[in-house]
Amino acid sequence: MSSSRLRCDRSVIALVFAIAVAGCSSGNSNSSQTSEQPSANFVELTATEGMPALPSLPLGKPANLSLLEPREQEVVAAANDRAADLRSTTVKFQIDQPRTEVSLRQLRHGFTFGFPIELKRFRDPEDLQWYTARMAEHFSLAVLESDAKWARVEPSEGVRDFGEADANVAWAEENGFSVKGHTLLWGLPMPLSGAALPKWAEEKFPSKDLNAEEKAELRRILKAFIQDSVAHFKGRLAYWDVTNETLQPLAQWFIDRLGPEIVEDAYTWAREMDPEVELVFNEWIVEVFTGFNSPTAADVRDRIMQLQSRDVPIAAIGQQGHFAPTLSFADPTRDISGRTNIAEYAEALDILAEAGLPIHITETNFIAPEEPELRAAQAEALMRLWWGHPSVDMVVFWGPWNKVAGRDEFNVGFWDNDRAITRHGEAVFNLLNEEWRTNLDVESDDDGQFEITAFYGDYVAYWTVDGVTYSVPFTVEKSADIDGIALITPPTATP
């Protein structure tokens, strides 16, 4: 969902229903009581016999938002007020059965919620099976955590191996997830990162002061990695994090050697190899992190607008969301009692939005504060802020399960090592699985009609006639001019 679509006038937002059925029909119902046929602007969905399989989702428990400061509570309340127009719409239904109860269950959000995948973290097949099922129940996007980074793909110069990344992409495709690549240009040297830069590259170009020949060689090597990576996955990825932390002072390895123009080059090289994939500028901001000299939201906005003025093909802003004092990453013994001020962070999001691009909340995990109830309040407040912000159209949870998160010492997951739901997990699931899902039982009127307010996303409708249950899937999304949905009960089969 693009930023421009989010900002369009409500009068021109209508419904398109993606139909996943074997055909549409206006055939006669098997009931003696049938309503009048719908107008031509209703999309007709013919049901099939059988009760749909429905996931059993944890409903969670709300957080205590009174733990937040008054100004933070005001910001969250304002986001809640905006969310109704952003994330839901009115849906009209016409069914050929008057006075019949129709059950509507939302299976997946239209808003993109994602998670990282790195298959080698799973040493027990049962763990992977459990994780796969939980991710499919809650999320729609899988992000290549580290297996597409340069050090992983090319541990020896000139020998690129996409095997591990390929396995992750294949797993995502098999389980119905779209995929995001991460990341093509990340200048964080070892030991701060063991995946951003190959050891051989650091040894080959140790000095910032490269001569013309050395610069040309490094550009050639980097271009080959970027273009081979994008070409290798062409048509299979929805997004690429082209750059990562290019404004972070500790991650300047490429810029120190090739100049700031290497950022533009990276996007150009990626676009040449795949004209369709969305290219993302991923960065953290000091309004979230503390402890390092990080860029502000204004710094990120200004840099992106500068790149836009030069026609650099950036499709979205990735805003890293590790909510913790930064130094806790390097030293788990450090105090993490502090937390991000929600009101200040809301202002930072508005500043980022001034660049006019969709915002992806990336690498999100809730590390601070340590106190579970306050952490749950922070997590719920941030979720409501994102849900109600017109520029935010993606949230990626970085480590939803402690056992494979690589951050188990911080208890970042929605589930702990033993698969029990954490307190902040309860707060998030209360939103994802209850408050922000449309699950209704509605009775049609004498004309077979009813109307609901529905969140955008994937659904299934089912109803029972003469002891037989019928069901049909559909999708509600922002798009073209359609009046509503007609639910068609198939005629009784002839013996």
Largest sheet: 8 strands, parallel, barrel
Instruction: Give start-end ranges of low-pLDDT stretches.
Output: 1-33
Main sheet: which strands, in order across? 6-7-8-9-10-11-12-13
The fourth-level CATH homologous superfamily of the largest domain is Glycosidases
Number of strands: 18
* Global geometry: globular
Derived structural class: alpha/beta
Distance between the termini: 48 Å
In DSSP terms (H or I, runs of 4 or more residues), the helix count works out at 13
Helix share, percent: 25-40%
CATH class of the largest domain: Alpha Beta
Second-tier CATH architecture of the largest domain: Alpha-Beta Barrel
How many structural domains are formed by the residues? 2
Mean pLDDT, all residues: 89
Residue share in β-strands: 15-25%
User: What is the radius of gyration computed over CA atoms, rounded to a whole number of angstroms?
Assistant: 25 Å
> Which fold name is given in CATH as the topology of the largest domain?
TIM Barrel
Descriptive report:
- This protein has 495 residues and is an alpha/beta fold.
- It folds into two domains: 15-107 and 440-488, Sandwich (Immunoglobulin-like), CATH 2.60.40.10; 109-435, Alpha-Beta Barrel (TIM Barrel), CATH 3.20.20.
- It has helices spanning 3-7, 70-87, 125-138, 150-153, 163-174, 199-204, 212-232, 253-258, 261-273, 297-309, 342-353, 372-387, 423-435, and strands at 14-16, 42-46, 48-49, 88-95, 101-109, 112-117, 141-144, 178-185, 239-244, 278-283, 316-323, 359-366, 392-397, 439-443, 449-455, 457-465, 468-479, 484-488.
- Residues 1-33 have low confidence and may be disordered.
